[in-house]
Amino acid sequence: MISLLYIDPGSGSYLLQVIIAAVLGVLFYFKNAWMWIKSFFTKPKDKTKEEEHEPSE
Predict the structure, then answer these.
(1) Model confidence pLDDT, tens digit, residues 16-56
(2) What is the distance between the terminal CA atoms of the chain, rounded to a whole angstrom?
(3) Cα(44)–Cα(35) distance, integer angstroms
(4) Is residue 15 within 8 Å of 7, Cβ to Cβ?
(5) Alpha helix (H) ranges present in 1-57?
(6) How far is CA 53 from CA 26, 43, 44, 47, 56, in A?
(7) Cα separation of 15 and 3, whole Å?
(8) How many CA atoms lie within 13 A of 24 on its CB side?
């Protein structure tokens, strides 16, 4: 029964990469969702006088 619990190093490192990628993906998703919600409820910043007078390229 104990021999069924063996994970070779290749599979272990792959499993670790999958877990890390999943955690980072979830964090990135929620960060983007939070920024979208936050930008929905806040008004955009007004341009300063210097930005209005700069010629656009």
Answers:
(1) 999 999 999 999 999 999 999 998 888 777 766 666 666 66
(2) 70
(3) 13
(4) yes
(5) 9-41, 49-53
(6) 42, 22, 19, 10, 9
(7) 19
(8) 6
